[in-house]
Write a structure and sequence with these properties.
Blueprint (H helix, E strand, L loop, with lengths): L2 H22 L7 H10 L14 H30 L10 E5 L5 H7 L5 E6 L14 H21 L4 H8 L5 H12 L2 E11 L5 E3 L2 H17 L8 E3 L6 E3 L8 E8 L8 E7 L4 H6 L2 H7 L4 E5 L12 H10 E6 L6 H6 L3 E6 L13 H11 L19 E6 L4
Parallel strand pairs: 1-2, 1-9, 2-8, 9-10
Antiparallel strand pairs: 3-4, 3-7, 5-6, 7-8, 10-12, 11-12
Helix pairs in contact: 3-5, 4-7
């Protein structure tokens, strides 16, 4: 081969390799250094030496509290729940899991689906800006770690998070939703390897964002707020003349995140993926913007969980997310805030109950789903449940429900 042909061949190979590399690696910026730092000082997932400018005493106190919470949480809930739930799952359980209304509760998802290769939570809470972890002053950093650590402890004690506590954590300067996820990785023996922000395209595909794009959007949001032109977040009020559900979608530039992770110290392990998507899942919002649904539909058949979901799947105005679950779930675990029996029966799904359910303890029920749920538990054999999964019932009983396709 002459020199010209050789150079041409080398150029073609280089171009081909560059294109292949671009296809193999996500675009956008990877905030791996920042997420690993928050994992160390917030989630306390390792004991690597701290930089001199960090408040070592405050971090050490925080980490002592977190490690105590982890140990207690394992004994009180994780170990019991894992041992109980694993035999209930089919051998061919999909390794892709979806957790609507899940906040940053990766912890429960990893307890239920410890072998999942991909987990997606969806909720109103934005992820927050991981980059602030490198710019907070020592006092603010210590305060935020204490605040979010307290909320994580509350989740571990109650086995569910309130929207109020999730919102409080998500508004801290330290990104609370991300810290919830990193604490989950620490509890379950995983470590983060990367973090990226992304947008959802109209067809549900993902587009990763650069730091420059995030900065531009943040500057535009600040300018709009100062000029008074930023749209006010609409409060959602639902009920036939009675206000019984009020919430709002958190507007943020730093909304959707993807964290890749692996077992601690196992550099050769295939990366697993956790994604958090900010979305209001009621029909009004999904009708106006169905990107989140399109993203979920691309996953095919999935494993599903939901708990402490404010009984939203009982209501007429959450029909689209409920229909998605009915069409795509292979196996689903929930408390009574899961899919009502009438919809499961129409979709030819089976439902099996555990524990005791005599009624929901804080809900308005225009469709009288409570009656159907009570009947469902009554016609199932009595099965003990030695731990709480989501809400208690009206008389503080533990309860749990499996919804599955026949034969799964």
């Amino acid at each position: 081969m002459n020199r010209r042909r050789l150079l041409t061949a080398l150029v073609l190979v280089t171009v081909s390799n560059t294109r292949a590399l671009a296809q193999a690696q996500p675009a956008g910026d990877d905030f791996a250094a920042e997420v690993k730092l928050l994992y160390r000082i917030g989630a306390c997932g390792n004991a690597l030496p701290l930089a001199a400018d960090l408040p070592k005493k405050a971090i050490d106190r925080h980490c002592a509290s977190m490690k105590y919470r982890y140990t207690r949480y394992h004994r009180a809930w994780v170990d019991k729940a894992k041992a109980f739930i694993a035999p209930l799952q089919p051998a061919d359980l999909p390794q892709v899991a979806v957790y609507p209304f899940g906040g940053g509760d990766l912890n429960s998802a990893l307890t239920v689906f410890p072998d999942a290769t991909e987990i997606t939570t969806l909720s109103l809470e934005a992820a927050g800006d991981i980059r602030t972890i490198t710019s907070l002053d020592r006092h603010q950093l210590g305060e935020d770690l204490t605040l979010i650590g307290h909320d994580i402890g509350r989740l571990y004690q109650a086995a569910y998070s309130t929207t109020k506590s999730l919102m409080a954590a998500s508004h801290a300067r330290v990104p609370g939703t991300i810290m919830f996820a990193l604490a989950a990785l620490a509890v379950h023996g995983f470590e983060p390897t990367s973090l990226r922000y992304f947008d959802l395209e109209p067809d549900g595909s993902m587009r990763y964002l650069t730091g420059a794009e995030l900065d531009q959007r943040a500057a535009a949001a600040v300018a709009a707020a100062e000029a008074g032109t930023r749209p006010r977040t609409k409060r959602q009020v639902v009920g036939k003349g009675t206000v019984y559900r009020i919430w709002k979608l958190q507007e943020s530039v730093f909304a959707n995140i993807e964290i890749t992770y692996r077992p601690i110290g196992d550099e050769g392990a295939a990366p697993r993926v956790y994604r958090h998507v900010v979305a209001n899942l009621d029909d009004e919002h999904l009708g106006a913007d169905r990107r989140a649904l399109a993203h979920l539909e691309k996953k095919g058949k999935v494993a599903v969980m939901t708990k402490a979901a404010s009984f939203l799947l009982w209501y007429d105005d959450f029909s689209q997310i409920r229909t998605y679950l009915l069409d795509h779930l292979t196996w689903m675990i929930s408390d009574a805030s899961g899919i009502p029996p009438s919809y499961a029966e129409a979709a030819k799904l089976e439902q099996t109950t555990y524990g005791t359910f005599v009624g929901a303890y804080f809900i308005k029920d225009p469709n009288n789903v409570r009656r159907d749920m009570v009947k469902l538990w009554a016609r199932n054999p009595e099965r003990a449940l030695p731990f709480r999964f989501g809400y208690p019932d009206a008389e503080d009983h533990n309860h749990l429900m499996i919804t599955r396709r026949p034969g799964s």
